[in-house]
Design goal:
This protein has 300 residues and is α/β, with parallel strands linked by helices. It folds into 2 domains: 174 residues, 3-Layer(aba) Sandwich (D-Maltodextrin-Binding Protein, domain 2), CATH 3.40.190; 100 residues, Periplasmic binding protein-like II (D-Maltodextrin-Binding Protein, domain 2). Helices cover 39% and strands 17% of the residues. The protein has 12 helices and 10 strands. The protein has a 5-stranded mixed sheet with strand order 2-1-3-10-4. Helix 9 packs across helix 10 and helix 10 packs across helix 11. It comes from Streptococcus parasanguinis FW213. It holds the Pfam family NMT1. This is ABC transporter substrate-binding protein. One of its GO terms (biological process) is thiamine biosynthetic process.
Length: 300
Amino acid sequence: MKKLDFILDWTPNTNHTGLYVAKEKGYFKDAGLDVDIKLPPEDSSSDLIINGKAPFGIYFQDSMAKKLDKGAGITAVAAIVEHNTSGIISRKDAAITSPKDLVGKKYGTWNDPIELEMIKSMMKKEGADFNQVKLVPNSDSNSITPIENKVFDAAWIYHGWDGILAEQKGMKTNFFYMKDFVPAFDYYSPVIIANNDYLKSHKEEAKKFIQAVKKGYQYAIEHPEEAADILIKQAPALANQRDFVLASQKYLSSQYASDKDKWGQFDSKRWNAFYAWAKEQGLVSNDLEDKGFTNELVGD
């Protein structure tokens, strides 16, 4: 058995279910792999992959922009979710149903240049002034509690986790997907990334790993309830939140791939559209067209 480390982007959640299914169901074992799924360090999962400390991990196409721009040796080898399910959630009483409504409101930000430029672009498209948004630092592990406590009115979240959490709490909220306002924002998030040197020297092993992961996500697509229970078994910290995990899993199982046989594939047009936007905004200096992804391991 070959030992492989896989670095998560965050604490275990339903974005990761297919990995835990592949482990639990023996798909990794069948591929001759002993996979250790690890929590990320404080700073970033990507640095461990870039520096060759682990072959695979989870990252995001938007966050990859800056790394690829600097020549980082990483490649996205599978899209965990087919479309970008992130968007802006707010308390119902804040009356924010589109980007322009953020004017005069408190927005919880983690102060990432790409994040702020995306908010700015959406507002600009609607003729609204981003400078009139009150930016409040968002350092909470979930964005729902501070919204509930009126620390800020709105935040950028993934619907499949924080959005479902708000529903489970019975909160009255508004939510809109960012991709509905700027089509270039339908990028891939999250993705599985790999170290380029590893891919060159371990091509067959990498393919076996990704095919086993693909089987795990295909199982989760077809069996959301069983998959949710596998996630909870592998990540016991979630044990007291089964209803929430199951609701989140049902949503994401419908989002991983519209055609389960095509799970993990990238559409180059959508990949390139986001990086073209990033270059237009001056967020990256190099042309990143067709850079940083491959469909070779997930297959057709």
